[in-house]
Amino acid sequence: MSSHFRRVWAWPVALAVLTATGLVSALVSDSWGDGWSWFALGLPLLVGTRHSLCKAKP
Question: What is the predicted pLDDT for the residue at 41?
Answer without folding.
Answer: 94
